[in-house]
Amino acid sequence: MTGAGEGGGAPAGPVDVYEVVVVRHGTRRARRSEVFLNYAQYGEPDADFTVDYYLWVLRSPTTTVLVDTGFARGPAEARGRTVLVDPADAYRRLGVDTAAPHTLVVTHAHYDHIGNVGLFPSATVVVSGAEVDFWTSPMAAKPLIGHFTEADEVAALTRADAEGRLRRFTGSVEVAPGVVVTEVGGHTPGQAMVTVRTGAGVVLLASDAVHFTEELERDMPFIAVTDLPALYRGLQTVRDLLASGAVDSVLTGHDAGVLDRLEPVSPELAGVAGVLGRLPS
Ligand SMILES: [Zn+2]
């Protein structure tokens, strides 16, 4: 694919091209009225709706960038989620060295995205400053907001900060050659997305800026939101990125069946981990 290197941007070399490993670590059976905000207003019948849970690993020949860490078993099961693979086990099976000083992007601080930050004691944690400030403010204790977080998991972020490993950003930041993190807000105050250059074009990891393709295509916000206009703007931003060709494909935060469209990382990891833009080994 072309596009990313055009227009006088950074020169593209082999180290700038990544493969995206998508780990489906959990799932749940929900109802449409449980996932779309104010669903009754659409006047549509309710129906079952599957929500899958993902984390992502970006790998180039020289660099590994982690995007979110999935949920921890306890908080997941307390919320009725099904654990398909413990993320710690998934990292081990993928050969990710959790002791290495990787870059770890936190797209937002909900329990299903930061549940295993503590597995990476040497990582540099990249997160929007607005996100950290919000979840360490009194507002984080409000029931309809705090429901989506775990205090000890947010504490893993402040611990990384105390250890000099937290990299706050505003706007947009390139965290590795070819990997750019951009905050859009909406779902949470510092909700961020990641663009990465792959052999299959520029991929946008929308995380929970777009939970589901239907949310994007029908402009139907997810039920959990801290700033509704910002959420709508974020959806428009993603549509604009696609329409302009700035990104070639989008991976959403919680669509079911994403792995069905990807090549398994290995036969043993079929159904658990798929790869987009696989690099030659
Ligand atoms: Zn999520």
From TrEMBL:
Coiled coil: none annotated. Residues 52-254 form the Metallo-beta-lactamase domain. One of its GO terms (molecular function) is hydrolase activity. It holds the Pfam family Lactamase_B. Keywords: Hydrolase, Metal-binding, Zinc. It comes from the Bacteria. The keyword Metal-binding applies. InterPro entries: MBL_superfamily_lactonases, Metallo-B-lactamas, RibonucZ/Hydroxyglut_hydro. Its cofactor is Zn(2+). Belongs to the metallo-beta-lactamase superfamily. This is N-acyl homoserine lactonase family protein.
